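Practice problem 4.
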């Protein structure tokens, strides 16, 4: 039986970010599934269009990738998204997959990075190994994407669990959800914090990290904090560049569950 694994990312138009964040995750998942043909799809049509027009690079949509796999005779399929939470993109992926169930004998879907309690513990442990939170009195502020979806609750839940482990100098903000950077800033001011380290809590260190977090615009997170006297050093490294995150996604692919 021909077997395939489809890895679905939101996507990025930054080629360097793709190489540093998406490719290593795909390689880890592929290595964990020997004998499976790997294909890539992006969820963002805007990014797919930009890559094609600017660089002549063609990336499949999810539907295109599924059609290609079906025509190639794939019968057993694992789909692993590289999303951080169960947000709108994940819901949309499930809906698309349901349309193609009759073209495969088996379709299994892996969960996003943060799915169950053990994922939170593993992420916190891994981030602490990277940043060594207790080594500095600086505040560590992570930028999540955020969403209007109820899954946005993952971000304050993650912050709560980080601080419950004694890392009381670690905070989570989001670009498009709650908490916002202004919420984080007020907490830092109450603590008379003078220095901070900013880092993405996203798979890819792309546009949000380079512009919304570390950019020169007056509304970038760096400038918002520094206007209030909080020095901000920015780390431009997406979660996909960390070996422990690559391993987590590979484990989720191995634990993928059948879609009915």
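Answer key:
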């Amino acid at each position: 039986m021909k077997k395939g694994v489809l890895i679905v990312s939101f996507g990025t138009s930054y080629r360097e970010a793709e190489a540093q964040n998406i490719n290593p995750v795909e390689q880890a998942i592929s290595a964990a599934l020997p004998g499976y043909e790997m294909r890539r799809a992006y969820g963002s049509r805007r990014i797919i269009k930009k890559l094609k027009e600017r660089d002549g690079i063609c990336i499949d949509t999810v539907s295109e990738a599924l059609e290609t796999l079906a025509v190639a005779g794939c019968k057993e399929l694992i789909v692993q998204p590289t999303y951080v939470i169960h947000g709108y993109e994940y819901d949309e992926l499930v809906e698309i997959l349901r349309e193609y169930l009759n073209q495969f004998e088996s379709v299994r879907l892996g969960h996003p990075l943060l799915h169950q309690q053990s994922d939170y513990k593993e992420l916190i442990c891994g981030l602490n190994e990277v940043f060594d939170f207790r080594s500095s009195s600086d505040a560590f502020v992570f930028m999540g994407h955020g969403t209007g979806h109820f899954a946005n609750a993952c971000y304050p839940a993650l912050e709560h669990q980080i601080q419950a482990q004694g890392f009381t100098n670690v905070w989570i903000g989001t670009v498009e959800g709650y908490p916002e950077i202004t919420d984080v800033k007020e907490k830092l001011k109450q603590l008379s914090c003078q220095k901070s380290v900013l880092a993405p809590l996203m798979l890819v260190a792309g546009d949000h990290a380079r512009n919304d977090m570390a950019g020169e615009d007056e509304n970038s997170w760096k400038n918002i904090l520094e206007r209030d006297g909080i020095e901000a050093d920015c780390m431009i490294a997406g979660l996909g560049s960390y070996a422990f995150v690559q391993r987590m996604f590979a484990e989720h692919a191995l634990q993928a569950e059948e879609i009915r």
